[in-house]
Please model this.
Amino acid sequence: MEASERIIVPLDVPAISEAQNLVRALRGHVGAFKVGLELVHVAGLGVFDQLRAAGADRVFYDCKLHDIPNTVAGAARAIAGMGLWMFNVHAAGGSRMIAAARRAIGERPVDQRSALGSQPTPRLPLLLGVTLLTSLGAEELAAEMRVDVGPRDYVAVLAEMAVTHGCDGVVCSPHEIQDVRARCGSEPIIVTPGVRPSWATTDDQRRVMTPADAVGAGADYLVIGRPITRATDPAAAADRIADEIRNAAG
Ligand code: C5P
Model:
């Protein structure tokens, strides 16, 4: 896959006009754009058509569905009709919820890797499972959720369950990629946030990894926000990150 196509830019802005400006500045320099709950609640579901009109061919809807299987299936069916590239559910919703989402979207006729890279946007959106929010630490996992394995094991087990029951891939922290690959193999798509080039500030991210190291560890896609969106020249920042990934791949 071309290095720039690995970059997903989150449109974490409170106004559609700002999101459209980012898309216009970055189209052709990055692979996709991520729309999260903030922008959808500000702009409404029409945001996807508005972003497409600005040039966003590939949109990842970070909706993180988590409910009973019937409810998630209904939402997944509706989302699948919206022309999106990718959306997600919380893997913690369990195997029946994931299987219901998979059935609602439809079975992918070809293996999911053909939906990567420069292939045209597939007819069906890719379904990802969010493993463990990186905002949750080992203490909360043990004391509040009563999970008796550490975060790395928990993430790998959730990832395996998610892909076994119909997810095309998972979202996990860069530090868990190797555990997920070891358990799930090379096939599932891995999307990772918490990525920072060495020349950027870490902002509020605590455990970061450089883009080249995350790809080296086995990530397919990198969600990289503020180092690009807050740069004086966002396209130049994205190009610099793509160069670093390319050079590291040698
Ligand atoms: O600006 P920055 O690169 O930190 O943005 C990262 C994006 O990835 C944000 O949209 C954030 O919500 C998302 N994300 C994250 N950590 C997670 C899950 C999602 O940073 N564990």
In short: The longest strand covers residues 59-65.
